[in-house]
Amino acid sequence: MRIRFIKTNISPIQKICLTGLFIALAVICQKVMAVNYIPALPFVRVSFCGPALIIFASILLGPFYGLIVGAASDLLGYLIFDPRTNPMFFQITLIYAVLGFASYFVFSLVRSITNRKLMFGIEVGTLLLIWGAAALFLITNAKVELVFKIIVPIACGLLFIGLILFSLLFKGKEDNPFISPLHICFASFICDFFFLLWFGSLMKAWAFGFNLFITIFLCQALVMFVNVVLDTFFISIFQRFTKKYFVEVR
Prior knowledge:
Helix content is about 75%, strand content about 5%. It starts with 6 loop residues before the first strand and ends with a strand. The chain has helices at about 10-30, 50-60, 65-80, 90-110, 115-140, 145-170, 180-210, 215-240; strands spanning about 5-10, 35-40, 40-45, 245. The chain is built from 8 helices and 4 strands; from the N terminus they run E-H-E-E-H-H-H-H-H-H-H-E. About 40% of the residues are buried.
């Protein structure tokens, strides 16, 4: 398999301008159109399309611009909305910086994969394993209240089913894009799984205490089910409007 790195015909000046635009939009999505700093779960962030913007900035502009968008949007969002109410955690900024940098390489790699059944199988199998492990932990943990033992596994299960249906639905409506929606779904899953679930949980555990790692991981796993669907949808839409800027490399 030969990796075809994503190329665009956007000039450096245009990239700088678009970087500023992506940062501003990501701040709005990460802070205004998001669920942040829940009192009982201060490490949870559910954003409308913040991660999708950071990922797409990396795809469209390149890894270094993606890193700037990821890091700057988190720092600027904190400075505007949170300096008086919440402490600054550079570990969380690092999560979005890594997401912005690495997404370009993940999408370039996934775009070169031709075995679609393998992609779909890996995604479904991994998510099913995460859902099963989370449900088992909640059900067998005596400290968890009964209502959460029932509601959380059911909610995760519904999100899992929705994600699978969403992936299959997109599979049938590709419209010959530069990156197919099925590839976008699989690449978004990889980005969320490695950079937001595992790396993000470790960084947040470093910030909030490693004794909370399991709780953080379970919350991040639940958020991942939402993120993959939103990322796939928004990145597919963004690509439709910017398709003319991508250059096919043979």
